[in-house]
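User: Hey, my collaborator sent me this sequence without any context and asked if I could get a structure. I don't really work with proteins. Can you help?
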Amino acid sequence: MSGQSVADRPPGADLLVGPPTVSAPVRRIRVFIADDHPLTLDGIKTTLRTDDAFQIVGEAADGPTALRRIIKLRPDVAVLDLTMPGLDSFELAGELLAASPRCRVLMLGEPDSGDALQRLLDQGVSGCVLKSSSSDELNRCIHIIAAGGVYLDPAIEQPSSPPQNRARTERNDPSELSPREHEVLMLAAMGHSNKIIAARLRIGAKSVETYKARAMVKLGFSSRVELLRFAMTEGWLGQAGE
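Assistant: No problem. I've predicted the 3D structure and written it out in structure-token form, which is a compact way to encode the shape of the chain:
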């Protein structure tokens, strides 16, 4: 045993003693998956497991079971097949979001029409991706909606404007926006959060909110659904990967 006394220790030696500092683990995105086709379900799980940011917390093969388990498990994102037995997509989305409003819902498949997609968006669904999309597209979409964004596969038929809004929509002119307002609104429509937009454009998060609000007023939009419809018309969502 060493005979070195406390007085013999070099200054600051005690600061070097102890376990190494361990950084707090990064919180993973908790994902629930529901699809009545076993092969599709396995494929989705395989895709999600390629991204360490995801944690699969549960699965189901029919609507009622999915609803019951999602309410119990409270995942961050629920990836749901559009056509599962037991509950149709509208019933499932409505009941799920009423019981667990913090859960972000991603529908997997193609709605029958733009109006059907509009109904899902109005209910609070955050995204819709085709089953023919790439695995990278699915993972990216989950990241976007988990961060609070909305994402629709560009190949999906866009919602139609309600008749009473068509005249106003035709007058929406992006040239009315300043370059910065245009940038912010486009990024917001793509599903990026204020924090991400601020970092990308090197401005403050409060400035992002100001530019976004000003642009929404200029274009006459009062909801995210209106912005999303306009973004699809302008082709902004097709630029999401650029």
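In plain terms: The longest helix spans residues 205-219. You can pass these tokens on to your collaborator as they are.
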